[in-house]
Design goal:
- Pfam families: Sigma70_r2.
- Keywords: DNA-binding, Sigma factor, Transcription, Transcription regulation.
- Belongs to the sigma-70 factor family. ECF subfamily.
- InterPro entries: RNA_pol_sigma-70-like, RNA_pol_sigma-70_dom, RNA_pol_sigma70_r2, RNA_pol_sigma_r2, RNA_pol_sigma_r3/r4-like, WH-like_DNA-bd_sf.
- With about 190 residues, the protein is mainly α.
- It has two domains: about 5-115, Rna Polymerase Sigma Factor, Chain: A (Orthogonal Bundle), CATH 1.10.1740; about 135-185.
- Helix content is about 70%, strand content about 0%.
- It is built from eight helices and no strands.
- The chain is elongated, with a radius of gyration of 22 Å.
- The termini are far apart.
Length: about 190
Amino acid sequence: MNNSLKSSVPTDREVILGILNNSEDTLNKLYKGYFAMVLQFILNNNGDEDDAKDVYQEAIIILYNKIKEGNFELSSKLKTYIYSVCRRIWLKKLTQNSRKAGNITDYEDVLAVEEDVEHHEEKDLQFVKMQHALEHLGEPCKTIIQDFYIHNLSMQDICEKFGYTNTDNAKTQKYKCLQRLKKIFFQP
């Protein structure tokens, strides 16, 4: 069957498999598939299109991370899960901004997804904290850590880049840098 003839919204199973297989096409279809539902919800509850885009983006990231972590069990339709996450995020934003959050107008079933949203927010905070720690690490440590963990350079590459005599020296330096990074990261 020709893919272009398929419906624009992938099945729940296709979404999960697509995300597991890093399919950009699946993510694009997912973005388009349920946005109208979320937009409608946010417009009816003191928000605008930009709010809807932000909330939807965040919900897709939560879904993506949950599937990638391998502990995602779909106990409902994916549409319901996405709607519930968006609803939870929006309620929180309304409360934080002291906008009217009392009478939320709902059209969909809602799941309890507080834990998923909180887990995502906690990871976000940790990421910001790690970026902050990296900024305060100084050179050459900052670049060594980024080269190894983010840019996936080998110890041999790092050794050559920084002019270490051998990879053992580079490993020792990386270890010292990690210790310093941990110290900065876990500072109260």
